[in-house]
Design goal:
Helix content is 15%, strand content 42%. It is built from 6 helices and 21 strands. The strands form 4 sheets. The protein has a 6-stranded antiparallel barrel with strand order 3-12-15-14-13-16. Strands 4-11-9-6 form a 4-stranded antiparallel β-sheet, with no helix packed on it. The protein has a 4-stranded antiparallel β-sheet with strand order 8-7-5-10.
């Protein structure tokens, strides 16, 4: 109540009233939430800042996966006529075949009867022709019958498509019934990678996204692919959704049932305010960035974050382009300036 007086330690005046403690750095009310650090200390802490910008963002979704055959590139050889296999031309699983290549030669009493009927029918060959076609009788042999040539005793069954034999049930000399599967052939030039994506990541993935696939056999050789389908269900126990990535396999290095890891680049549409991930102080309940106000002054500001992408965090609310945020020594500033107390004004939480 008298003349101005100060003391570096607690003190009472002549009326035994306590002096009011005052911090030297207290300022106006508009700066009450600003953390102040001396410029000398800023230099010693190595504080760096960066201007906030709008960016295009892409999230990387990682998933465990397995390599499988392309279901659309598989073929089974199951003749519509029965008979005895007299000679195998493709005799081992793993053999590569080309379209039209002979797989085996078969003696079929049923076909022999139809061949004789065809030759005897003369000008009324239409019915016999259709019956042979319905049994997948080779077109080249049918042309010979039309020219009146003597029918062959055995018929060669060709491969309908190129690929690799992954199953072979045919054995030379065996008798088989109509519709019995004798070969399974698959084209391995394109493989499917079935990836399991966590439910919380599903919103970031869409058909058409690019992916990089690695397998244990060749960990340093990634295979490029593209997401082509997202399956409609979610696993009850795993809480994962399955998606299909198609990968070119020209060298044949990818094989069915290989374990794989898929990294899917999922672009976030539009341009977004983003900050370096080192700028975010995350307490678990809230996220804070330190906005540089100049001359060693820093404003702890709550922000609402979206997706985390490599090196950056999407900011949905709380920052504007052009503002500068601290990108290093944020936790040192927190410790030196008692950031928890500075945040109390925002949250009403003194803890």
């Amino acid at each position: 109540m008298g003349a101005p007086d100060t003391s570096p330690v607690p003190k009472k005046d002549s009326m035994q009233m306590d002096y009011i403690p005052v911090c030297e750095e207290e300022g106006s009310s508009e700066d009450s939430n600003v953390v102040k650090v001396s410029l000398d200390r800023v230099q010693r802490l190595g504080v760096r800042s960066e201007a906030v910008e709008e960016r295009t963002l892409a999230r990387t979704v990682r998933a465990f996966a397995t390599v499988q055959y392309d279901e659309r590139r598989q073929t089974v050889i199951a003749p519509r006529f029965g008979g005895w296999i007299e000679k195998l031309h493709v005799s081992a699983t793993g053999d590569a075949v080309t379209p039209g290549q002979k797989l085996f030669e078969v003696y079929s009493p049923e076909l022999n009867v139809l061949q004789q009927e065809f030759l005897l029918s003369r000008g009324t060959q239409g019915s016999a022709d259709n019956r042979l076609r319905n049994l997948d009788y080779p077109e080249s042999d049918l042309e010979k019958l039309r020219r009146g040539e003597r029918p062959p005793r055995t018929i060669a069954v060709p491969a309908p498509a190129a690929g690799t034999v992954i199953e072979k049930m045919a054995v030379e000399g065996m008798r088989y019934q109509p519709g019995e599967t004798l070969f399974r052939i698959v084209d391995t030039s394109v493989m499917w990678v079935l990836a399991e994506v966590y439910e919380q990541d599903l919103a970031f993935v869409k058909v058409g996204d690019m992916a990089m696939v690695t397998v244990n056999a060749w960990p340093n050789r990634p295979f490029a692919g593209r997401v082509t389908f997202i399956y409609p269900g979610v696993g009850k126990d795993s809480r994962t959704a399955r998606l299909r990535i198609e990968v070119a396999n020209r060298d044949g290095l990818l094989r069915a049932d290989m374990a794989a890891t898929a990294e899917i680049e999922a672009p976030i549409p539009g341009r977004w305010v983003a900050v370096p991930d080192t700028a975010v102080i995350d307490s678990g309940k809230r996220q804070i960035v330190l906005v540089e106000r100049g001359e060693g002054r820093y404003e702890p500001r709550p922000v609402k974050l979206g997706a985390r992408v490599p090196n950056y965090a999407q900011v949905l609310d709380g920052l504007a382009p052009g503002e500068r945020v601290v990108t290093s020594a944020t936790f040192l500033i927190d410790a030196e300036s008692n950031l928890r107390a500075a945040l109390a004004a925002f949250t009403g939480d003194s803890r």
